[in-house]
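anyone seen this seq b4? input:
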Amino acid sequence: METLNFSINIHAPATKVWEILWNDTTYRQWTAPFCEGSHALSEWKEGSNVQFLTPTGEGMYSVIEKLEPNQLMSFKHIGAIKNFEYQPFDDESKRWSGAKEIYSLQESENNTTLTVQVDTDESFAEFFNQAFSKAIDIVRQLAEGILKPSITVSVVVHAPIEKVWQCWALPEHIAQWNNASDDWHTPHATNDLHAGGKLLWRMEARDGSMGVDFEGVYDDVQTNERIVYTIADGRKVNIVFTPEGDGVKVTETFETENTHPHDMQRTGWQAILDNFKKHVEGHS
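predicted toks r here
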């Protein structure tokens, strides 16, 4: 077993760095260099278990050995998880079981030094050296306000890319899939899909009780590959279309807003994306 050490100075108080490290939204963001969609499930109390998971349910389970808010988080890794289930010990897991991962924060005059110590099998040392260096710099950028908290949702649509793109681009299709629940709809949409073009999607409750104009300007459009736009409130949205098997993976990353809880935002955007998948696959 080899112990790796990482350190970075962050121009932000320890309370802010701590929040960035363990808040679900920002945790997913800074751990992306290890695996896109990484997340952790825990009560976040000393002595409680933690599941570190990929979107497909692979990962490991650990215990929080020591927790001092805004100062120290110490994990002891125990065993492997596959398909969201704890696995019996095998020769591979026995090599790293008991490894420690320790996050320490030291604050001085509104600056915080984040130090990470990681025990790892030598075969993973190069990967962790690269990934952790990227990860803690993302923590720094989030804490200093250089990066904004963002959420990523995705879906695999089983259809040719040309069809997927057309259904995303044309207003008559947008009006059919752009709703998170059946009690909302999009009665009107305009979509000038090119750099500098504008989008305006009118979203309303079906009972007429409320409505909102979702509007923005396209920053970059690469046909069948990528769309980037800025919402009217200044937030960025990045959509990537990637071939996957017999279909297309649509990955949408959006900067969060401060009015609604992040879980609600993730659920809403994912629901619309799921509705998009249903519409494309059901459209002849």
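The longest helix spans residues 262-282. The CA atoms of residues 114 and 273 lie 36 Å apart. kinda curious what u guys think
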